[in-house]
Each structure stands twice: as C-alpha cells, then as structure tokens.
Amino acid sequence: MEVRVQEEPFDLGLESVVFANKTSASGAVVTFTGVVRDTPEGTLDYMDIEHYPGMTEAALRQIAQDALTKWSLEDATIIHRFGKMHAGEMIMMVATAARHRKDAFEAAEYLMDFLKSRAPFWKKEVSKNGASWVAARDEDETALTRWQE
Amino acid sequence: MDVLYFAWVRERIGVPRETVQSSAGTVLDLVEELRAREARYAAAFADISALRVALDQELSNFDASLAGVREVAFFPPMTGG
C-alpha cells in the first residue's frame, strides 16, 4: 500500500504501469484519475488545493487500510496533489489491484467516496470573476452511507 | 494549545495557526471563547454546522472534551478527490 501527497504533477502512465506490474497475483487493476475541471464558461484561471499536512497522510493511510481490510485486495495506491493546478491537470489517482475485478472496482469507488469527504483537502477555484471555495456536496456525504454494513 | 484554521476559516480569521491559552473543557467552550474575542472570530464561527473539527489530527465533534488535546483544527467540510 502506498500513499503520496505531493505538490508536483505525477505521470499517470508510469504510475499505472508500475502499479500493474507490482503483483502477479492480481488479475484486475482499476485506476481512477481526478482532473481539474474548467467552468462551463471556460473561465477557470487555476485551482488551488489546500491540505492539512500530517492529518492528510494519516487519513489517506487509514482509508486505504480500511479498503484493504474490507475487500480482497493485493494492493492499493493513492496519490493526491496540493497547490495550484490548471484545467486539465491531474489532481489525484487511486489504483487497486485484486485477483478479480469486482473487488478492484468496489474498493476504488470506496477510496474515492472517502477521499471526497474524509481527507482534509479544500479546493478553491480562481477565475477571472474572483475566487471561491468549492462547497462540499450533500451527495458526497450520502455516498458514504452505502458502505456501512 | 495550537489552533489551526483551513480554507475560508483561515481566510476569515486571517492566520493559519495560533497558540491559544484556554481552559475550555470542550470544543464548543473553545468556540465560545474565540467568538467573544473579535469580530473576525465571530464571523468565522457564526454557523458551526458549516464547520468540522479535528483534535490532534483526527476528526471529532464539537461536544468532545479538550482534555490532553494539543492541536485543534477548524475547517469547512472537506473537498478532496
């Protein structure tokens, strides 16, 4: 299991290949990538992501560990950036590897659901019209309840 | 104890962290003390349902005790991913 919090960009292709080649026991590898989305009007200047150093790493480790406990995974990786990035830049990725695809898909969704509202990151959108903090969505909080059983 | 602020809470209060001398028993008591300080704190803590709190880097709640706590952080709901 690997967790990385970094300011610099990551190479999605390289990370995916390295991850996929790590275990020969895995028949299924799922990766998800979050990308900076422009406004519908195309006015986004940049996104600035703030985080809570220390707590961020601990929270991501806990989320990854919970996924490893809950599903039959061979491995999991989370990479999440902070700082300024422009539309189209990759913000984060998760990767899961399992013997079979169901575990890999479900665990990746679980990682994403918890990353959204339990990892201490805050996104600010800066556009020509000003700056605003991205509000958390109720659906993101509701999404967590489906994993409680 | 150290008190940290993130995102718009940090912007409203104007500092990312500060050391606070307090005898507050719970998070809510600490919030009341901060609110009484200055308008910028009152503005930041106007609606605590819009805020989250972490104690020593673990998510907690406003009723929680501050006994033994060294670091308190206030921030809006997180928007990772």
List the helices and strands and how they pair.
The complex is a heterodimer of chains A (149) and B (81).
Chain A: E1 2-6, H1 12-20, E2 28-35, E3 44-51, H2 55-70, E4 73-81, E5 83-85, E6 90-98, H3 101-118, E7 121-127, E8 130-133, H4 138-145
Parallel strand pairs in A: 1-4
Antiparallel strand pairs in A: 2-6, 3-5, 3-7, 4-6, 7-8
Helix pairs in contact in A: 2-3, 3-4
Chain B: E1 2-5, H1 7-13, E2 17-19, H2 27-37, H3 39-44, E3 52-55, E4 58-59, E5 71-75
Parallel strand pairs in B: 1-5
Antiparallel strand pairs in B: 1-2, 3-4, 3-5
Question: Quick recap of the structure?
Answer:
By secondary structure, chain A is α+β, with helices and mostly antiparallel strands. Chain A is 34% helix and 36% strand.
Model description:
The complex is a heterodimer of chains A (about 150) and B (about 80). Chain A has about 150 residues and is an alpha+beta fold. Chain A has a single domain, classed as Aldehyde Oxidoreductase, domain 3, CATH 3.90.1170. Chain A has 4 helices and 8 strands. Chain A has helices at about 10-20, 55-70, 100-120, 140-145; strands at about 1-5, 30-35, 45-50, 75-80, 85, 90-100, 120-125, 130-135. In chain A, about 35% of the residues are buried. Chain B has a single domain (about 1-75), classed as Beta-grasp domain (Ubiquitin-like (UB roll), Roll), CATH 3.10.20. A 5-stranded mixed beta sheet of chain B has the order 2-1-5-3-4. At the A-B interface, helix 3 and strand 7 of A face helix 1 and strand 4 of B.
